[in-house]
Amino acid sequence: MPCLICERIDLIKAGLNPYFVCELQTGYVVIGDHQHFYGYTLFLCKDHITELHHLPPERRSVHLAEMALVYEAVYNAFAPEKINCESLGNGDAHLHWHLFPRISGDTPQKGPVWWLPKEEMYHESKRPTPAQLEDMRQQLKQEIDRLVRHGKAGEKTC
Fold first, then answer.
1. Is the pTM of this model over 0.85?
2. What φ, ψ does residue 86 adopt, rounded to 5°?
3. CA dihedral of 27, 17, 143, 42, whole degrees rounded to 10
4. Which ranges of 96-129 does DSSP label H, i.e. alpha helix?
5. Cα(first)–Cα(last) distance of the chain, in Å?
6. Each residue of 19-76: pLDDT tens digit?
7. pLDDT band at 153, cuts 50/70/90?
8. 29: helix, coil or strand?
9. Tens of pLDDT along 73-120?
10. Could you tell me where the DSSP H helices lie in 27-129?
11. How far is CA 90 from the centre of its chain?
């Protein structure tokens, strides 16, 4: 069975993924396809591995520092009250991180994003328009570049 994360990375490399924000040393930053949680972002590991501890220790440290940088950039760019961060991999067994900006009332009851019915979370009306997507990409890219310039992590800007 093909890896959906690897397929998305191949689209990034081919210049065909409109959700792509930037490449860091250990992964790719992309805006989520659906934006019920405004600013929903993913950080996709470049290495096709299933678990964080499968990365060699030095690369793992860089990857975690970059993930923390993306987390901070999402927080700064989209101004949520809180961010939920998860690495699941049950559906796509390739290391990747979900960063969900949260605000009061974004779900019918307090709890994880996954309590929201999938039909609502992934409804076609939750896809950003091309203009909204471009604005989100630019906001996040500028914030990642700013954090990298200020020595938050890595040496590579978007």
1. yes
2. -140, 145
3. -50
4. 118-121
5. 31
6. 999 999 999 999 999 999 999 999 999 999 999 999 999 999 999 999 999 999 999 9
7. low
8. strand
9. 999 999 999 999 999 988 889 999 999 999 999 998 888 998 999 999
10. 57-78, 118-121
11. 17
Tell the residue number behind the tokens 């019920």, with chain if given. Answer: 36
Burial category of 58 from C-beta neighbours within 10 Å (exposed 0-12, middle 13-18, buried 19 and up):
exposed
3-class secondary-structure state, position 19: coil
CB atoms within 10 A of CB 117: 11
SS3 at position 144: helix
Helix (H, G, I), strand (E, B) or coil at 79: coil
Rounded-to-integer distance, Cα 78 and Cα 39, Å: 6
The correct CATH number of 4-105+119-149 out of 3.40.50.970, 3.30.428.10, 3.40.630.40, 3.30.70.270 is 3.30.428.10
Res 89: pLDDT: 84
Tokens 């949260």, located at residue: 102
Closest alpha carbon to 64 in 142, 156, 154: 154
- Domain-wise residue ranges, the chain: 4-105+119-149
Q: Which amino acid is at 48?
A: H
